[in-house]
Write a structure and sequence with these properties.
Order of helices and strands: HHHH
Number of domains: 1
Oligomer: single chain
Number of helices: 4
Largest sheet: none
Strand content: under 5%
Number of strands: 0
Shape: globular
């Protein structure tokens, strides 16, 4: 069985591809993103690294979309799904405090 984080990453990647094929954001994708964000936050990942991980998994450019819109098959669809994913990731990361890991011992 793959390590827990790899399973979560695969879930995000697969859900993102399905959302693109279905031509719109899906609950599965946003749930998978929330799950991965919670896991990464609980394991001490800073918000910047979480966003980079999400973008990498979804094949998003790490720079603003304006310079890359021409290379996307359906830039408006891809952009709207990508923006929803990033918005949910940021909201999830900052929505709940995580106890200091040393306090859990």
């Amino acid at each position: 069985m793959p390590p827990e984080h790899l399973t979560r990453e695969r879930n995000v990647r697969v859900a993102y591809e399905r959302a693109l094929q279905a031509r719109g954001p899906q609950v599965q994708l946003l749930d998978a993103v929330r799950d991965l964000v919670r896991y990464l936050k609980q394991n001490g990942e800073p918000p910047e690294r979480v966003i980079v991980t999400i973008k990498r998994l979804c094949g998003m450019p790490l720079v603003p979309f304006a310079g890359h819109a021409a290379v996307m098959v359906e830039p408006d669809l891809t952009r709207s799904i990508s923006e929803a994913v990033i918005r949910v990731a940021i909201k999830e990361y900052f929505s709940r405090p995580v106890l200091d890991r040393s306090a859990r011992i």
